[in-house]
Amino acid sequence: MLNYSHFKSFAINIYMNEKQKMKAGKIYDSLVPELASRRREAQAFCLAYNALPESHPKRARLIKKIFPKAPDSLFVRGPIFVDYGDNVTFGEHVFFNFHAVLLDVCPITIGNNVFFGPNISLLTPMHALIAAERQPYFDVEKGYLTDREYGKPIFIGNDCWFGGNVTILPGVTIVDNVVIGAGSVVTRSILTSGIYAGNPARKIRDIIAEDSIYMNKDLW
Question: Which of 20, 105, 114, 185 has its Cβ near the most Cβ atoms within 10 Å?
Answer without folding.
Answer: 105
